[in-house]
Design a protein that fits this description.
Beta Polymerase, domain 2, alpha+beta
Length: about 180
Amino acid sequence: MFEQVKSEIGPYVVLPAVCRNHDPRAADVARQIAAVVAQYLPHMPVEHVGSTSVPGCAGKGIVDLMIPVPDGEMDKVKELLDRLGFQHQTGAAPFPEDRPMRTGSWVHDRETFLLHVHVMPATSPEVDKMRFCRVCLRADPELVRAYVARKQEIIASGVTESVQYSRLKSEFLTTVFG
C-alpha cells in the first residue's frame, strides 16, 4: 500500500525524564510530521498535544502527536508509521496495539527532537481528554505555572524514570480535570 514511503524519522533514544524550558520549535516539528503523514493519508488528522503544544509549558521536550483514527483504519495508520520509520514503543508498560504509541526522532534546526505518536480510535474518550487538557493549559497561565511546578518537584524528588514521571504528572492533571 505504501511502497515508496520516504521520511527522515530517526531512532528514538530513551533518556531520563527532565523538566526543560518550552522550545517553540516543537510546534514546527509537529507541523512537519503532520505534513509527512498527510502525504500518504491526507484525510488523517495529526494533532500536536502534550506540554510542547502549550506555549511556555516546560516538560520533557518530547513532541507528542495524536492521530485519532476512524473505525477500520487503525492497521493502515500503524503500517504507514512503521514504514515511515517510527518504532514500536519499548520498555516498561508499552501501550497496547489497539491504542499504540510509536516513537522516533526528527532533526529540525540542527537539533534532534524526540517524538511520541499516540494512535487511538477517534471515538476514544482519551481524544477529547487530550484536546481538553491542551485547550485549558493554553488558556490559563496560572495552571501552566502550577503544572510546571509539579513537574519540577517530581524531578527534584529524584524521579527520572519516564513511566513513573508520567504517572506522577498525570496525577496532577487528574486532580485538576477529574
